[in-house]
Amino acid sequence: MRILSKRQLKELVLYSPQHIARLEKAGKFPKRIQLGSNRVGWLESEVHEWLQKKLAAR
């Protein structure tokens, strides 16, 4: 299991942090994991699954 940082997520998904937050709030993107008071991350497997669904839907 690997957890992606904000920087790694942005490189993989190419969305702004604000857009990612909007998608999360709407339930259209994997939820972040609170790792500390000022640190969040995303499960790499969930992000890859989300990307695969996007590719399949095109």
TrEMBL record:
Pfam families recorded: Phage_AlpA
Source organism, top-level taxon: Bacteria
InterPro entries in UniProt: AlpA
Name listed for the protein in its UniProt record: AlpA family phage regulatory protein
Organism: Roseovarius phycicola
